[in-house]
Amino acid sequence: MPLPDIKLDDRTFEQLIAEAKRRIPGYTPEWTDLNESDPGIALVQLFAWLSEMIIWRLNRVPEKNFVKFLELIGIEPSPPSPAHAELTFKLAAKGLTQLIPQGTQVALTEQVDGKTFIFETDDNLYAVGSELAAVQSFDSARFEIVTESSRVPGKYFFPFGARPQRDSALYLGFDTKFSEGIPITLTIHVFTADLIAEGKGIKAYFSTTTSSQDGNGAEDMAPTVQTDQNAPSPSADAVWEYFAGKDADPSWQPLTNVRDQTANLTRTGTVGFDPPVDAVADKLGLLRKDEDLALFWIRYRIKELLGAGFERAPRLEDVLLNTIMATNSVTVTDELLGASRGTPNQKFTLANTPVFLDRFDLQVDEGEGFQSWTMVLDFAASTREDRHFTLAPTSGEVAFGDGEQGRIPGRLAVPEDPETDQPNVKAANYRWGGGAGGNAGANKITSLESSVPFVDSVTNLRPAIGGQDEEPLEQAKLRAPETIRTRSRAVTSSDFEFLAKQTPGARIRRAHALPLRHPDFEPIRPSFVERKPVCSCPKCASSGGTARQDCGCSGGMAAKTSCDVTSTNRSTSTLIPVPGVITVVVVPEALPDEFKPMPSEDTLKLVGQWLNQHRLITTELYVAAPKYREVEIEARVIAQPTSNSGQVAEALKKMLLDYFHPLLGGAKGTGWDFGASISFAETYRRILNTPGVARLEAGAVTTYVDGQPQPACTDVLVNDDELVFSRTHKIIVSYA
User: Fold this and answer.
1) In the chain, where are the structural domains located?
2) 211 vs 456: CA distance, rounded Å
3) Is the peptide bond preceding residue 481 cis, with omega within 30 degrees of 0?
4) Distances (CA, A) of 720 to 515, 602, 630
5) Confidence of residue 482 (pLDDT cuts 50, 70, 90)
């Protein structure tokens, strides 16, 4: 929860006047005229107004302390962040190739609030004159043409079919042959609109983090970046191939120098490869009619599924050529900031703000030419010889040390005039920009500012995203408690559950921590705690042998006042906690038609590696998949005379499928609670509350768990590491 807004005095102007009037009779009983026209009341109002101003200033003290506290722990308002957009270039003619160099500038067609927003490409791109003319998916049994689906925003297709199998493949047909020697890059977008976002980790301790060390042991300051050390392992052994002709042996040859960032088409990314020299045009799949064009084909084929295969079947929105990522920024080089005076704590200001920390290169000339200095968070660990500086991204202020903590830049005089300082501090390279204004809609970034030959047009087929203005102080204050909380090690169960759902690169819908539980074994402590008398007479035997005092031992035995009994012990057992162990059960995001979501081995590995960074050293951590119990309801329902029996049956099936869903079910509709019992009463209630249901016959509902019928009118217990799911339900609807 956010920290409270503390007020030392919350009295208002009206309350101060009322309080003064209440005290008048006690001090000056002769003062009886308390109307607005009285001069004394005018003085009361004047001093009340002055008091309110003093109270307002007094209440600013806690806010000042709050701000200083945020600075103390390293929390400051986030600087403006730049928008990112994918720019697609189109060349003027077929068969051309053209290098789009890094830093190529493209601007929004229209200004935003009187400002021009410019995007610069993040890398080099070789644009080609070819066009993706056809897209087909193959599910190992049949082809499907998905060309139009790949061109409509918001729609998707299954590149390997809804159930990927061996030899499933995505086929891409191009209208012209690629030029030899020019690397080709495809941008592939995975459809994730109906899924939760991937975890992004937790916010860093500071707005920037330390990343490396220089020769003096001081740490550099670099922007917070989540490394890809936990990149997913492949779900399938797949290969990119090109069609070399029916006469070739084999007709499909592997592409060379493949650089695939899509993780088997499960992540948005790029695929690069060298163009095949001996590619042949032909008609393949469903495109074999006379009017169909012969195309140059490449395909991505599954050779073998690995392990359990895909956690979710891949779904794609589109495949694009000639597309490169661009950032709302402007690059500045060799900007002179001024001359060092050789004094402590010197500060210089950049001409453009806000500044991005990446690629920032500050250089100082102390007589031996310009040399780069190292950016640090502060000078706490700097020595007098360390060439360190700090940078405030929002204000663009560059600061140097005092000679004890951080070196003072040396003064450089003009050779012709030793009394004049020569500018010797410069920003050799930096980028600036950002803000919410860069979040342009699709097809809005179309004005090519750089001169690039043979480019016919450029646009962003998808909206630019990610641009934000500077974070307000109030928002930073609200963020502080969460940031402080997530900085600490994972200690409690809720800490592990929260962090598991923040795992970078994974979509974790639910997490449940089980302290003192080992996933592979459960030690049991046996104990004998109960003694029960048993009897072999027929009447007692019918009740399981439990002796009853009123049985009389009839059935051929002599009547007695009580049973001839022997004693037996019933063995009971208890689960032994495993000290220092915690098991985190995770449930991944799933497609709408997936009834039993299971994390892949890769997802379990990602979560485990992420949580391992935050656990205490004394904690033994395990990450496991949930255990499932399948539920099937068989019910005979009496429908209302005016209802449609078929519609009632379908409504009941849908209701039960939703209710017993691991992600959408349960009492709150947010997923079945771990270890929640299957309540027969709640099942009855939901059936009776379904529109069109009149009543239930006695004994008309049977619950099957894992295929076994359960006793009528009894709850089914579920272990705390288990969830329930259902695939189908049997509903019989009749009329009275």
Assistant:
1) 13-72, 79-129+436-486, 136-321, 330-432, 488-521+578-624, 524-575, 627-735
2) 42
3) no
4) 11, 24, 15
5) low
Residue 617, both tokens: 């050293």
pLDDT digit string, tens, across residues 28-82: 888 888 888 888 888 888 988 988 887 777 666 666 666 777 777 677 777 888 9
Report the 10 Å Cβ neighbour count for 684.
15
469 token code pair: 């203005």
CA-wise closest residue to 391 among 225, 213, 223: 223
Omega before residue 463 within 30° of 0, cis: no
Which one is predicted more confidently, 115 or 296? 296
Nearest to 185 by CA among 272, 124, 125, 100: 272
- Spell out the long-range contacts of 475-483 with Cβ–Cβ below 8 A and sequence spacing 24 or more: 475/77, 476/70, 476/75, 476/76, 476/77, 476/78, 477/2, 477/3, 477/66, 477/70, 478/2, 479/75, 479/203, 480/3, 480/70, 480/73, 480/75, 481/1, 481/2, 481/3, 483/75, 483/202, 483/203
pTM: 0.68
Residue 272's CB is within 10 A of a number of other CB atoms, namely 15
Name the class of domain 488-521+578-624: alpha beta
Residue 185: closest CA among 119, 281, 314, 87 = 87
Which residues, including other chains, have CB under 8 Å from residue 266's CB and lie 6 or more apart? 190, 232, 235, 310, 311, 312, 314
CB 487 within 8 A of CB 205: yes
Lowest mean pLDDT among 146-155, 558-567, 568-577, 682-691: 558-567
- At residue 627, the 3 state secondary structure works out as strand
Q: How many angstroms separate the CA atoms of 713 and 28, rounded?
A: 80
Residues 6+ apart with CB under 8 A from 277: 180
Query: Confidence class of residue 660 from pLDDT cuts 50, 70 and 90?
Result: very high
Any idea which residue has 């004047």 for tokens?
46
Percentage of the residues of the chain whose pLDDT score is greater than 90:
52
Secondary structure (3-state) at 659: helix
Q: What is the mean pLDDT of the chain?
A: 84
Query: pLDDT tens digits for 174-185?
Result: 999 998 889 999
Taking 70 as the threshold, does the pLDDT of residue 647 lie above it? yes
Structural fold of domain 330-432:
Elongation Factor Tu (Ef-tu); domain 3 (2.40.30)
Rounded Cα gap, residues 589 and 622, in angstroms:
20
- What are phi and psi for residue 217, nearest 5 degrees? 85, 0
Per residue in 412-468, pLDDT tens? 888 777 778 889 999 999 999 988 889 999 999 999 999 999 999 999 999 998 888
By the 8 A CB rule, do 92 and 457 touch?
no
